[in-house]
Design a protein that fits this description.
GO cellular component, one term (chain C): plasma membrane
CATH topology of the largest domain in chain B: Rossmann fold
Shape of chain B: elongated
GO molecular function (chain C): transmembrane transporter activity
Strand order of the largest sheet of chain B: 2-1-3-4-5-14-13
Low-confidence stretches of chain C: none
Main location (chain C): membrane
CATH class of the largest domain in chain B: Alpha Beta
Number of domains of chain C: 1
Number of helices of chain C: 13
Order of helices and strands of chain B: HHEHEHEHEEHEHEHEHEHEHEEEEEH
Mean pLDDT of chain B: 82
Keywords (chain C): Cell membrane, Membrane, Transmembrane, Transmembrane helix
Structural class of chain B: alpha/beta
Number of domains of chain B: 2
Radius of gyration of chain B: 24 Å
Mean pLDDT of chain C: 86
CATH topology of chain C: ABC transporter involved in vitamin B12 uptake, BtuC
Distance between the termini of chain C: 18 Å
Number of strands of chain B: 15
Chains: A mainly alpha (336), B alpha/beta (355), C mainly alpha (330)
Number of strands of chain C: 2
Radius of gyration of chain C: 21 Å
Helix content of chain B: 40-55%
Largest sheet of chain B: 7 strands, mixed
Structural class of chain C: mainly alpha
Strand content of chain B: 15-25%
Strand order of the largest sheet of chain C: 1-2
CATH architecture of the largest domain in chain B: 3-Layer(aba) Sandwich
Oligomer: heterotrimer
Organism (chain C): Muricomes intestini
Low-confidence stretches of chain B: 1-15, 17-43
Largest sheet of chain C: 2 strands, antiparallel
Chain lengths: 336, 355, 330
């Protein structure tokens, strides 16, 4: 098992580095608890059941977070996911309205997403010189454009047959199914990223793509797989989003990409690549969701909520940086 | 090593679930307080919520003001909610939040006809009365709809305006919002229907352009219309952003093309006039504040049980008079506020400060 | 023979030249379908309507050159534009020149804060500007307090966009001046060299005595300043200030740069390229309704064109590299 020997080698110099990272994640857990106490104290309707009830819509964005974390760790970005969700949701509704069996509808939704992701990956791996941001910007416009064309002049499609979607929007007690699905994928993506050679290759590419290439990692194949997985998860998100909307329109999924990126960054994943853990992203995703639900319940001005989220995002990165610098200065001063 | 990481992972996961539980418990302890306050609420005040299309828009703001004024005058509690973006997605979160807060009614100006169905159905299941105003949802997700003016009536007045301004014949074009805007599409279809009458046979609709409610794109589209159709006589823009951008282009270029449509008086005051220096002889709109007020009375009547949202139900809307619920074209029901109001040089000065 | 070769080489050898060819082909095709496209008035209209994006492209060029990115520009623009609109609406300030100064000042302050967070706080540009994108947009909404400033409130200010100097519209003139200044600065001054140096190799630049974080700070401040200026311009051009103005247009600005051959990893790109790139986008926006493409398909066509132009860029680059290698082998 070459992977195993590699693991021990990688892990040896990691100790101190790991400590700091663990610090960030455990801090996030503390923040998460504080946020919950805070929300519960400002809003009397912030309760276990109401939070769980409001959660499904926000949780659809969590699906996007997992592969987005991989892409960010690669040092790349995908801003077309919101559009993929839109296109996939549109096709899902249309397929369902054709009275196709629900399993086929699910397949359509996943397939459309996967194809879109594959197209992104194909362009990016065939033309490696192109920056992912500009390619996914282009495909973003195209994917949403295709959704616009297929929606026609109404711009909106309703779900005539909601039966299957009612099923997946169901609950066990007060816990919605989607939470379990998110949890399953969270475990899968986390384990793959932190425990497998594939995950380690992702980090390797993110820290130094050329070095990774020369050490025998199939850089382009891995990129293609990740972008396709991004599409697949966008399809899944579209499926569950449809179950909370019963319809789709041209603005469906607007801004999802930015939300997913914000969750990841707040969780300590660096957009420069090579750094960060999915666990952090998941906890920070939950923090952002709870904060949004709590502030929404006290009817705060939505723009103010956005200002707060923006400020939190910057502070989350800025404060550790400043702290690190102060420490560094102290160290150098002590050395002198 | 493997175990260590795993245990860390588990710890994190457990802490997370614990934290959720914590939050839950915490609120659980304050549960009793909230319930007591809830009961006090029940005995006295009902809570009525209005959800607008988007924040930062004076039309929506006036609508919400009209709603709030009536609710407060009638002794209710009013919640005004703007979604963070003008999308149905954002409105879903808002509706979910209102369900959690246990409001008695929701009046919503829908950003999309279909995509709110799941959450509005959930609201109705929770006993919340749901009505729409300004722009409707599909029939499954509402009890009734407060319509600013009948679709047919709007199509009729706009066509008559085009007929009048062109002098009975010639080319004209429409500059709409997005190609998907529900309201605009309904009005345009109504206009096309009206146009089938012989009276309008000499009018030629050359194009329906879409400015996406963006000033820049609307400007591009207006300029494209002008250069494509040199014989164009009238542009009809049934959208407040579009009419504004078009008015600006026409007036700046001192074009002979005239403009009409639906616009906010405060935005359009500069462009309304009979002479050649102004691009828009007259236009139409309704009073957003009245629309909000009527919607408020409708919400109150729904919560009271005076009306259930069936056609034929009647109620009194304060000093606005009596209204009756009628069948709408889409199979649901609606309440019509009245005919669209005409703004011309004689009354624009009086209205431009109002909304 | 030799001369011919060198001309041929300069044409194929420079990205700008190949862009120019794309531009010319585009123009010919469009004017073939719609003769009114290539008239002086239509071009002047187009420049005026796209001046805001074209000016911001310049700032973005600087940001991209040092390997950064700024996705907050449209929000900064809305914040400064709304401030101008509200000052006029409540008749606090009426002097056009003063209003422009205020707008530029606000933009500069916004840019400076972003620059400080990025250069001194070592926050990655995309994260910092994403945060400020939300913050400044939110502030634009706050300052507007659900009001718009409309033509009637704007008094003399809106006439600025109508005025002409030497037969050129004021707005277009400002754009041209900006481009000239940037062209000169980027090509012939120390500051320009520094920006390129930092972008192509930060460590080397730092070792050779350039204060890289100051250059970074400057670039973002300039970007903010231009966005602030554009806020005032946008209010004048459209005679209206709304908090959601130019929502999402930061992507157009970035796309214009990249189409113009500006590298997103820094160090490569020119003012001429940025100009051509933004011009291509402007022409696409202007031409799509003119050539009669169905409204519903316009976005798709726009996206496809962006992708095709960017991919073509890569292919020509590859062919060029191959040819150069061939030359070496011979």
């Amino acid at each position: 098992m070459a992977g195993k020997s590699g693991r021990t080698i990688v892990n040896v110099p990691d100790k101190s580095w790991k400590k700091t990272l663990l610090c960030w994640e455990s801090m996030l857990v503390v923040v998460f608890i504080l946020i919950n106490i805070f929300c519960a104290s400002i809003s009397s309707s912030y309760q276990f059941s109401s939070v769980l009830r409001e959660m499904p819509k926000y949780l659809t964005e969590m699906f996007l977070l997992f592969p987005m974390a991989y892409i960010l760790i690669l040092g790349e970005i995908d801003i077309s996911v919101g559009a993929i969700v839109c296109l996939s949701a549109t096709m899902t509704c249309m397929a369902s309205n054709k009275e196709w069996p629900f399993i086929v509808v699910v397949l359509v939704s996943l397939l459309v997403g996967t194809i879109c992701g594959f197209v992104n990956g194909l362009i990016l791996t065939k033309f490696t010189e192109l920056p992912p941001m500009i390619v996914t910007l282009g495909t973003q416009i195209v994917f949403r454009g295709i959704a616009e064309i297929s929606l026609g002049s109404g711009g909106s499609v309703s779900l005539s047959n909601t039966e299957g979607f009612r099923m997946i929007a169901g609950k066990v007690g007060t816990i919605p199914y989607i939470l379990f699905v998110v949890a399953i994928f969270a475990v899968i993506f986390t384990v793959v990223l932190s425990k497998t050679t594939f995950g380690r290759s992702v980090y390797a590419i993110g820290s130094n793509s050329r070095a990774a290439y020369y050490s025998g990692i199939h850089v382009q194949r891995i990129r293609l797989i990740i972008y396709t997985a991004m599409g697949f998860m966008a399809g899944l998100a579209a499926l569950f989003l449809t179950s909370v909307l019963y319809g789709a329109n041209t603005t469906t999924g607007n801004g999802f990409e930015m939300d997913a990126i914000a969750m990841a960054v707040f969780g300590g994943i660096s957009t420069a690549g090579g750094k960060g853990k999915l666990q952090g992203g998941i906890i920070s995703g939950l923090i952002i969701i709870c904060l949004r639900i709590g502030l929404g319940q006290i009817n705060m001005n939505p723009q103010l909520i956005l200002i707060i989220l923006g400020a939190l995002l910057i502070l989350a990165v800025l404060l550790p940086n400043i702290g690190g610098e102060v420490k560094l200065k102290k160290k150098t001063a002590a050395a002198k | 090593m493997k175990k260590k990481v795993l245990s860390v992972l588990l710890c994190v996961a457990m802490a997370a679930t614990l934290a959720v539980g914590c939050g839950g418990k915490d609120s659980g302890s304050s549960d009793s307080d909230s319930k007591s306050s809830d009961t006090s609420k029940d005995s006295g005040k009902k809570t009525y919520a209005i959800v607008t299309k988007s924040a930062g828009n004076p039309f929506n703001e006036k609508e919400a003001e009209g709603f709030q004024k009536v609710i407060e005058a009638e002794g209710g509690e009013c919640i005004v909610k703007h979604p963070e973006a003008a999308t149905a997605d954002a409105q879903v979160s808002v509706i979910q939040s209102l369900i959690s807060q246990g409001v008695d009614s929701i009046a919503i100006a829908a950003n999309d006809e279909n995509a709110l169905q799941a959450s509005l159905e959930e609201a109705m299941d929770a006993g919340i009365k749901v009505s729409c105003l300004d722009s409707k949802t599909n029939t499954d997700s509402r009890q009734t709809f407060v319509n600013q003016a009948g679709t047919k009536e709007i199509g009729q007045v706009l066509m008559d305006a085009v007929l009048d301004i062109t002098g009975g014949e010639g080319q004209w074009a429409i500059l709409s919002a997005t190609s998907q805007a529900t309201n605009q599409n309904a009005w345009i279809d109504a206009m096309k229907e009206v146009m089938k009458d012989d009276k309008y046979s000499k009018l030629e609709l050359v194009e329906v352009a879409y400015g996406d409610d963006e000033p820049q794109k609307s400007t591009d589209q207006t300029q494209a219309l002008l250069s494509k159709y040199p014989d164009l006589k009238v542009i009809c823009a049934p959208t407040t952003v579009g009419i504004n951008a078009a008015a600006k282009v026409l007036q700046d270029e001192k074009s002979s093309v005239k403009l009409t449509g639906l616009g906010l008086p405060s935005e359009m005051a500069e462009y309304i006039g009979d002479d050649d220096a102004h691009s828009c002889p007259y236009m139409f709109l309704w009073n957003p504040s009245d629309l909000g007020s009527l919607s408020a009375y409708t919400s109150i009547a729904l919560v009271d049980g005076t009306i259930t949202g069936k056609a034929g139900d009647k109620f009194t809307a304060g000093d606005m008079g009596d209204y009756e619920i009628v069948d709408a074209d889409d199979g649901g029901t609606e309440i019509i506020l009245g005919d669209p109001f005409k703004f011309d040089p004689s009354n624009i000065d009086e209205w431009k400060d109002v909304y | 023979m030799k001369e011919k070769k060198s001309i041929w080489k300069t044409i194929t050898g420079s990205r700008e030249a190949s862009l120019l060819i794309v531009l010319i082909i585009l123009c010919v095709v469009i004017s073939f379908r719609s003769p009114s496209f290539l008239t002086l008035k239509s071009i002047s209209d187009m420049l005026k309507n796209n001046a805001v994006i074209m000016i911001m492209t310049l700032g973005m060029l600087g940001v991209l050159l040092i390997g950064g990115i700024d996705i907050s520009v449209a929000s900064t623009l809305a914040f400064s534009g709304m401030t101008v609109g509200m000052l006029l609406k409540y008749q606090k300030v009426e002097n056009t020149f003063l209003l422009f100064l205020i707008a530029i000042g606000i933009g500069a302050a916004c840019g400076l804060i972003i620059g400080l967070v990025i250069a001194k706080g070592k926050v990655l540009p995309i994260i910092a500007t994403m945060g400020f994108m939300y913050i400044y947009r939110g502030m634009a909404y706050m300052i507007g307090n659900s009001q718009w400033a409309s033509a009637e409130n704007l008094g003399n200010f809106k006439n600025f966009a109508l005025g002409k100097v030497l037969g050129i519209n004021n707005v277009v003139l400002i754009m041209i001046i900006c481009y000239i200044i940037f062209f000169v600065v980027m090509k012939w001054t120390k500051t320009g060299r520094k920006i390129y140096a930092v972008g192509s190799n930060r460590e080397a630049a730092s070792i050779s005595g350039i204060n890289t974080s100051n250059v970074e700070l400057m670039v973002y401040t300039v970007m903010g300043t231009l966005a602030g200026l554009c806020g005032a311009l946008a209010v004048a051009v459209y005679s209206s200030a709304q908090p959601n103005m130019l929502y999402g247009k930061e992507m157009d600005v970035i796309a214009a740069c990249v189409i113009g051959g500006v590298s997103m990893t820094g160090g490569r790109g020119s003012v001429v390229g940025a100009f051509l790139g933004s011009l291509i986008l402007a022409i696409i926006a202007k031409a799509l309704p003119l050539v009669g493409i169905d409204a519903i398909a316009q976005n798709t066509v726009k996206g496809v064109i962006i992708l095709v132009v960017v991919i073509l860029n890569v292919i020509t680059q590859r062919v060029m590299d191959k040819n150069n290698l061939k030359g070496r082998e011979m």
